[in-house]
Design brief:
Elements lengths: L1 E9 L5 H9 L5 E5 L11 E3 L1 H9 L11 E4 L1 E6 L4 E6 L10 E4 L3 H11 L4 E5 L2 E8 L2 E9 L2 E12 L6 H5 L5 E4 L2 E9 L7 E5 L4 E6 L4 E9 L3 H7 L1 H11 L4 H4 L8 E4 L2 E4 L4 E2 L2 E3 L2 H4 L8 H22 L4 H29 L4 H16 L1 H11 L10 H7 L19
Helix pairs in contact: 1-3, 1-9, 9-10, 11-12
Bound molecules: flavin-adenine dinucleotide (FAD).
Flavin-adenine dinucleotide binds next to strand 2, strand 3, strand 9, helix 8 and helix 9.
Length: 424
């Protein structure tokens, strides 16, 4: 049997689920398939930046997040490993109502999106179903084939969307080459409950050392600890007390909090990778999210950018459907709108990898000076904050700002009010 739909989305993750919901709000028939047996359940840290909050608000999901699973956080303190505070960022400086970061329990936002998708008549969401290949007429993609619990299916679609993550099979089938880079460091993430919880975020940087602490709901705290790729088993072998001791040396004031780590089931490993592709579109097909542009988590924007992609594509597709134009030329408009912002964030995240992950004392010295300059310079601080918040499409620093940021030259505009964050 061949099924017909307007849009077929491969992957119901950060981007695909949002796209399905945004298309449903416009009554566009959509089939979404995901190879997983259901929505994700595993441990993962999640910070909803202001641009992600805007997307969820526009879709009516932000208000439905369970109050006991989310926490608004305003203050982020960057410190040197050992304890010295370098710089504090206040999300309260951003325009309301998105003047906070929201830390959620694992997958909470995603489950709310999926629940909303499942209520939509125009969307069919199919778990346990894998993408197996594209259907083509000449060079044009006109659908796809799937393998699921009921066997093999063919879906004819006007547009096929590859929202299937960094290792995208849709991208492969489209023969779009990808530069997939796996960073040498990933993160041990943990969620712990403590009698000494925190209400503000702390981020420690040292020599080849990063430890982030983010308050979650109630007495819960998320930890992000940088470890070399492939070393999770070795960390486990050394034991929990050794890990707690390492954390205590980085953040001595939270020694009590670290006692909340009791069991390895409170932890998970998060790999980090980057994807670059020469194009995100083909005739009848589009890539969104990590399939098109995975980035290092330093940008704190991976999931947010997948969601913003979804909204941008959902704004474009109704016109394509009305005009019956699904050509690469028409779909390229999506890439034209989105690529500059994404490229800027990928480059920024890589610069942060260079400075933040370093073990070179000179690079670490410069990094710490930049943090200390930011602490004294509201203009530059705001530019960094609005970039992390996803509200600024141009780099946070101009060439002159870079020199000023090292702290060797004064900034006569340090206290000038920054331009509106949406400026690009
Ligand atoms: C542990 C962890 C923590 C993270 N924390 C953050 C964070 O705090 N903030 C942030 O902004 N980003 C975070 N990220 C990054 C973020 O998760 C991704 O950038 C975001 O999920 C990208 O969305 P996506 O839809 O492109 O891909 P994904 O969310 O990866 O979704 C891809 C989906 O495609 C499905 N799929 C894959 N192949 C197939 C196939 N052949 N057939 C059918 N389905 C398929 C997968 O099952 C999956 O559901 C984190 C990533 C990890 C791994």
């Amino acid at each position: 049997m061949t099924e017909q739909t307007d849009v077929a989305v491969v992957g119901a993750g950060g981007g695909g689920a949002v796209l399905a919901l945004a298309l449903a709000k416009q009554g566009i028939s959509t089939v979404v398939l995901d190879q997983a047996s259901g929505p994700p359940q595993g441990l993962r840290g999640e910070i909803l930046q202001p641009n992600g909050q805007m997307v969820l608000d526009r879709l009516g999901v932000l208000q439905s997040l369970p109050a006991d699973a989310v926490r608004s956080v305003r203050h982020f303190h960057f410190c040197r490993a050992g304890g010295l505070r370098l710089c504090s960022i206040d999300y309260g400086d951003l325009p309301p109502p998105y003047n906070r970061a929201i830390v959620t329990l694992p997958n909470v936002a995603h489950h709310a999106i999926v629940a909303a998708v499942q209520q939509q008549k125009s969307v069919t969401l199919r778990y346990g179903t894998s993408f197996t290949g594209l259907l083509r007429e000449g060079d044009r993609v006109v659908g796809l084939s799937t393998q699921g619990p009921d066997g093999v299916h063919t879906i004819r679609a006007k547009v096929v969307v590859g929202a299937d993550g960094a290792f995208s099979k849709v991208r492969e089938a489209l023969q779009i080459p990808a530069d997939l880079y796996l960073y040498p460091d990933g993160y041990l993430i943990a969620i712990i409950e403590s009698e000494e919880p925190i209400s503000e975020s702390f981020y420690y940087v040292g020599h080849k050392t990063i430890l982030g602490l983010f308050p979650a709901t109630g007495k819960k705290v998320y930890l992000f600890y940088m470890i070399p790729k492939g070393s999770m088993e070795a960390v486990k072998q050394r034991g929990i007390p050794a890990l707690q001791q390492a954390w205590s040396q980085i953040a001595p004031q939270f020694t009590g909090l670290f006692q909340g780590l009791k069991d390895w089931s409170q932890t998970a490993y998060m790999p980090t990778g980057r994807v670059r592709t020469p194009t995100w579109v083909a005739d009848g097909a589009v890539l969104i999210g990590d399939a098109a542009h995975a980035m290092n988590p330093h940008a704190s924007q991976g999931r947010m950018q997948a969601m913003v992609d979804a909204m941008a594509l959902s704004d474009l597709l109704p016109g394509c459907l009305a005009d019956r134009d699904y050509s690469a030329g028409r779909l390229k408009e999506f890439e034209r709108v989105r690529r500059p912002h994404v490229t800027m964030l990928q480059e920024l995240a890589d610069q942060q990898v260079f400075y933040w992950n370093t073990e070179n004392p000179l690079v670490a010295f410069l990094r710490d000076r930049v943090f200390q300059t930011l602490d004294r310079n509201p203009r530059l601080r705001y530019q960094v904050l609005s970039t992390t918040a996803g509200l600024r499409a141009i780099p946070p620093f101009s060439s002159i700002d870079r020199v000023i940021a090292t702290g060797f030259f004064p900034d006569i505009r340090a206290h000038e009010k920054s331009s509106h964050p949406m400026s690009s």
